[in-house]
Amino acid sequence: MAGILRILDQMYPGATCALHHRNPWELLVATILSAQCTDKRVNEVTPGLFAKYPTPRDFAAVRPEVLAVDIRSTGFFNNKAKSIVGAATRIVGEFAGEVPRTMEALLTVPGAARKTANVVLGTAYGIAVGVVVDTHVQRIAARLDLTKNSDPVKIERDLMKIVPREKWILFSHQIILHGRALCVARNPKCAECGLNSLCYARDKTA
Ligand code: SF4
Question: Is 11 near ligand 1, meaning CB less than 6 Å away?
Fold first, then answer.
């Protein structure tokens, strides 16, 4: 594992979240919007969105069907609008308008499942509670033989055992970048990959 972490540091130094945000609330909204959507598209939508609705209170005051129009281009807009208005309502009502800082409290916020909560806690607050397991992390953890599980919760548990806690936040960002840049789902670019000599994936291309 140490070798993999060292190479990831060389390949992706200073990796961070690609979703633009100025505070934890904006990152929570951007992360909800990023489901089944590219970060690039989300980054196109959020500046106008946060200009129109600057605070959680503004989002809590809007009807989901109205917000859905503003976020239409990110797809699944009705569900996302419901989640965002629900999240804003809970954060304003229960947490004085501030995104909570614990996994337990965040999991009570609509739209914030464990993956989203890990993104917000890790990136916005610098609090390492777990490892973000998205589709890239699932695929690459399997390719690098870091887990035998396919369930995200179990994958996360496996990664938390082998990745040192101080690396959890950075590791998630590095793997997600790697999944976009080289270790893509089909035809990964193994010839260009620094992890090649440590990787025994069955679908390696070089
Ligand atoms: S060698 Fe290929 S499959 Fe293995 S981590 Fe690198 S890109 Fe992914």
Answer: no
Question: How high does pLDDT run on average in the chain?
Answer: 97
pLDDT tens across 159-201, in order? 999 999 999 999 999 999 999 999 999 999 999 999 999 999 9
Whole-angstrom distance, CA of residue 172 vs CA of residue 168: 6
Q: Which residues contact 113 (CB under 8 A, 6 or more apart)?
A: 107
What backbone torsions phi and psi does residue 60 show, to the nearest 5 degrees? -70, -25
Residue type, 23: N
Stated pTM of the model: 0.91
125-160: pLDDT as tens digits: 999 999 999 999 999 999 999 999 999 999 999 999
34 C-alpha to ligand 1 centroid (Å): 25
Rounded to whole angstroms, the Cα distance separating 104 from 123 reads 17
- Rounded Cα gap, residues 123 and 114, in angstroms: 14
The helix/strand/coil state of 120 is helix
Report residue 133: phi and psi, to 5°: -115, 100
Q: What is the pLDDT of residue 56?
A: 98
pLDDT of residue 27: 98
Name the one residue in this structure whose structure tokens are 């970048």: 177
The residue contributing the CA closest to ligand 1 atom 4 is 199
Q: Give me the amino acid identity at 119.
A: V
